[in-house]
Amino acid sequence: MAEILTQNEIDALLQALSSGAIDAESVKSEDKSKRVRPYDFRRPSKFAKEQIRTIVMIHENFSRLLSSSLSAYLRAMVQSEVASVDQLTYEEFVKSLQNPTVINVLSLKPLEGNMVFEFASNLAFGFIDRLLGGQGAYDGIIRELTEIEQMVTRRVVVRMAASIKEAWSNVIDLDPEYQGMETNPMFTQVIPPTEMVILVTLDVKIAEVSGLMNVCYPYVLLEPVLSRLSSQYWFASSKKSFSTEATTTLKNRLKEAVLPVEVELGKTTINVREMLSLAVGDVIKLEQSIKEPLNVKVGKEEKYYGFPGISNNRFAVQLYGVKQKGGERDGK
Predict the structure, then answer these.
(1) CATH number for the domain including 69?
(2) How many domains does the chain have?
């Protein structure tokens, strides 16, 4: 129904037109531009901009959790960051994948439906090589995974699922469950081809191998929680206090962290001529006295004092005292 103007509004409009303050042609073109908006019925936008922003924040958190979890599990530095977030049809997503690839299907109870974890074969072989004692290398040959390689890859995906659960915890309490693996994208039809999905692409690097990882959520899967995908709801939920169970889980994860420990025997200074004349059997005199304790480093920080010795036919150090407490140097 058209809006009815009052007499005062009509008089003001006529006065503005007569004075030239308003151009009638510009009003017509502006009104026409407001009425016409392009819309693609093949790719309807079902996710609002605020919902997409919240999904980005969730997966930035997931990216950090993934890097930490996989670094501890693989005993190698894993870097992960969100590259893009798009909404498209499931058919477009499938056609964009290479064949063969590694597609993992997971359910997210209590939500109805499945999500898809997809990553390129080079990442899968990097994970496998690292878990089997290698450096995380990839020979460049594109092939399908063997049954043993699929089993090893599944363990990595289960770790990823735990990070997904934690990343979504501010929105909904999910229970991810592994459903299966496929290497041919055309054989993975979790939803009809024309259905819309939200596709989160992560840039992942392990050792010298890097590649893209896709996290695909069908619209029907996230539809029950769309009302919660707002920045206000997400930040409000993230401020809730930690439960006893969450605190225990955090402590257990911290206990699994690997920390390098080094003992510094001492230091000295020599000139280039002395260095060039060094030979096997020469003795280098250090500035460290045998009566003074050595510095014991945890990571890069000097944390303890200790004295050298032998335990079970191995070099050892007996802790003598604490050099640092609570991350702050004594006396500062």
Answers:
(1) 3.40.1550.10
(2) 2
Could you tell me which residues come within 8 angstroms of residue 83 by beta carbon, excluding any fewer than 6 positions away? Answer: 201, 202, 203, 212
What residue numbers bound the domain in which 222 lies?
49-255
Whole-model pTM: value is: 0.60
Count, in order, helices (H) and strands (E) of the chain.
10, 12
The one-letter code for the residue type at 260 is P
Q: List the structure tokens of 244.
A: 């006893």
CATH (domain of 320): 2.30.330.10
Q: How confident is the model at residue 202 (pLDDT cuts 50, 70, 90)?
A: very high
d(C-alpha 203, C-alpha 225), whole Å: 26
Task: Extract the tokens encoding 93.
Answer: 């997503």
Q: Does the residue 225 lie in any domain? A: yes
Q: Which two tokens stand for residue 256?
A: 């699994």
Angstrom distance (rounded) from CA 59 to CA 32: 40
Q: Whole-angstrom Cα distance, residue 183 to residue 124?
A: 11
Say how many C-beta atoms besides its own lie within 10 A of residue 156's C-beta: 23
